[in-house]
Amino acid sequence: MSLIRVPKGTRDIWGEEIYLWHKVEEVVRSVAYSFQYEEIRTPIFESTELFARGVGEVTDIVQKEMYTFPDKGGRSLTLRPEGTAPIMRAYLEHGLNISNPRVKWFYMGPMFRYERPQAGRMRQFHQFGFEAIGFPQAACDAEIILIAWLVSKKLGLENLSLEINNLGCNKCRDEYVKTLQDFLKGEGDNLCANCKIRAEKNPLRVLDCKEETCQKVIHSPAFPLVQDFLCEECREHQDDLMEILRELDISFSINPYLVRGLDYYTRTAFEIKTGELGAQDAVAGGGRYDNLSSALGGPPVPGVGFAAGMERMILLLAKKYDPSSLKKQSLFYLAPLDVSGEKALLKLASFLGDRTIPFYLEFGDKRVKYHLKKAQKMGINTVIIAGKEEKERGELVWKDMVSGEQISMKEEELLAKLLEERKKC
């Protein structure tokens, strides 16, 4: 019988690599705590309609990449491909637009998209994100960008750059979309098959295309750019954001081709990139989604946020850290020589665990030499040894791996010494 293996595009995360994940999670939580963003955890699967209406039916995510299935009741469900639509759904479902209209949330967790697996991009991948709902101000856009920037810096990422764009609002975007649509009609022969459909149904999606022929169209001198169609309010919003970013000493450039891959974005869109990842250079991206609430059946509610791929962060961190250096080191190795020793050391484990003192407890009938070798391999300098003889004497053995000193002592004396050693660390 053959072994069952993980599905394509998924992987096990374990061993020393897990400490890199802990590092990312700790930094995200610490920044969230500083800015007082509270954690929210939404279901891993949602109604398919949530993403069709929220993300956009003509996006690649909805058309090609979602894991969608009927449940036993005949309802169409989808493994979440992104985090913002579920968060807005939760905001509306729990009536926060009435009881608590301004919220700041963050999240971490797995997302799912049927894509070609490659470095830093899996079919089950992980994201963290920050969302501020109920705030229309450009200053809130700046806070979201600042948070993404700080998390990246605190993780030690280098060669960071920020690109921003403004996608317009309901007032001015219609004119741009119509102009873009008219332009693309004249370029039909130069567009890929997908973009011919996009040009009709959702022309902004053409800017996402990476096909060489479409890229030539997009970067031709006559191609209409959204920056030229912004209304006075959108222009003012962008000017306010740029002024704040300069005050924050966050350098940026305007990328008029940046639209992101989701239909809910309005006004601000941004990406933070690094020169350390090659072609897949974006580490975080987001923007304003003032139309998302209405698309989901709610009242108009402003919102802004970003998401970052954790796998890409891990790839970068692996170049900067020895994962073992991030591990919280055990201070004591508990070495039972027999069943009596196991019982005695489990009692000691209860004492240490109650005080959150890290230790490693071995099991099984092993000789002292085995335990000392394993403790040395684990980098633990203090070994506590117990067996039948020690139990009969009412003692435990303290072994210092650095000096070689070995002392038998009563339980009370040893507990006091353990606490004393803990204070030194």
How is this structure best described in words?
40% of the residues lie in helices and 21% in strands. Helix 1 (17-35) crosses helix 12. The protein has helices at 17-35, 48-54, 60-65, 84-93, 96-99, 138-154, 173-185, 193-201, 212-218, 232-247, 292-295, 310-320, 339-354, 368-378, 388-393, 411-424, and strands spanning 38-39, 45-47, 68-70, 76-79, 103-112, 124-133, 160-166, 253-254, 266-274, 282-288, 303-309, 332-336, 359-361, 382-386, 395-400, 406-410. The protein has 425 residues and is of the alpha+beta class. The longest helix has 19 residues, at 17-35.
Main attributes of the structure:
alpha+beta, five-stranded mixed sheet, BirA Bifunctional Protein, domain 2, Rossmann fold, 16 strands, 40% helix, eight-stranded mixed sheet, single chain, 425 residues
Give helix % range.
40-55%
Report, as a whole number of angstroms, the end-to-end distance: 50 Å
User: Which band does the percent of strand residues land in?
Assistant: 15-25%
Average pLDDT score: 92
Secondary-structure topology with pairs:
Elements (H helix, E strand, L loop, with lengths): L16 H19 L2 E2 L5 E3 H7 L5 H6 L2 E3 L5 E4 L4 H10 L2 H4 L3 E10 L11 E10 L4 H17 L5 E7 L6 H13 L7 H9 L10 H7 L13 H16 L5 E2 L11 E9 L7 E7 L3 H4 L7 E7 H11 L11 E5 L2 H16 L4 E3 L6 H11 L3 E5 L1 H6 L1 E6 L5 E5 H14 L1
Parallel strand pairs: 1-5, 7-8, 12-13, 12-14
Antiparallel strand pairs: 2-4, 3-4, 5-6, 6-11, 7-9, 9-10, 10-11, 14-15, 15-16
Explain briefly what this protein structure is.
With 425 residues, this protein is an alpha+beta fold. 40% of the residues lie in helices and 21% in strands. Helix 13 (339-354) links the parallel strand 12 and strand 13.
